[in-house]
Specification:
Strand order of the largest sheet: 3-2-1-4-5-6
Shape: globular
Helix content: 25-40%
Length: 226
């Protein structure tokens, strides 16, 4: 997969390096040439440009990129400008890094696809969640077993937990389902926020846009998703 990471601070550079190690193509961007030079040997591509400049961002291969992450943390204004620019440029998937509740509210108002908080999410953990396209988050319980959040595959929409039969077919347990609920943010903008439905039953039906919380071995989870 192809990623663009904006910001080569500790978090952004660690994430870009980890994704590169996993075999993905990464373009890491920063306005500081010293940081670009420092990390050029550990990341697929490094580029020096100002993410507040929409024309400069348009020179990047956005149509061929699977995900853009704005990881700028120390400059609130630059972060918001970069996110707004990418939103206007129509990238496929946009993730924003928030450093405060206010920052998160602004990013929500702009309409990013996902918001991360660096104090609660390590770069390595995020890289694992991005390694498979449908995995949204991952928690390693042991070397072998994981709890992951993943979008429900289209082929299971409309089927019950019993019909999907993950436990017998793949040795995977469905812990719960996270389903979007409509709400209004501080700016009065309508938005959908995820909410767990509780303990699932055999007759619980998978719906479009559901997020499954699964427990099992990663190799078995991959079989469920693909």
């Amino acid at each position: 997969m192809k990623y663009i990471i904006i910001g080569l601070g500790y978090f952004g550079s660690s994430l870009a390096s980890k994704l590169t190690e996993m075999g993905h193509e990464v373009i890491a961007v920063d306005s500081d040439i010293a940081k670009v030079t420092q990390h050029k040997d550990r990341i697929t591509h490094t580029v020096c440009l100002d993410a507040r400049d929409q024309q400069a961002l348009a020179t990047l291969p956005l149509s061929d990129t699977d995900m853009v992450l704005v990881g700028i943390g120390e400059d609130f204004g630059a972060s918001v400008m970069a996110v707004a620019n990418f939103k206007q440029l129509g990238v496929k998937r946009l993730i924003g890094r928030a450093i405060s509740p206010l920052h998160q509210t602004v990013l929500e108002a702009i309409g990013v696809d996902r918001i991360i908080r660096p104090e609660t999410e390590s770069a390595e953990r995020l890289a694992k969640s991005l390694d498979l396209k449908d995995i949204l988050d991952s928690l390693d319980l042991t070397e072998d077993y994981n709890i992951i959040q993943a979008t429900v595959p289209v082929r299971y929409v409309g089927r019950t937990i019993q019909e999907a039969n993950f436990r017998q077919k793949y040795n995977i347990n469905v812990l719960t389902i996270i389903r979007p609920k409509d709400s209004t943010n501080l700016f009065g903008r309508s938005q959908r926020k995820p909410s767990a439905i509780g303990v699932v039953a055999a007759d619980t039906v998978f719906q479009a846009d559901d997020i499954m919380v699964l427990f099992g071995k990663m190799e078995d989870i991959r079989k469920v998703l693909h």
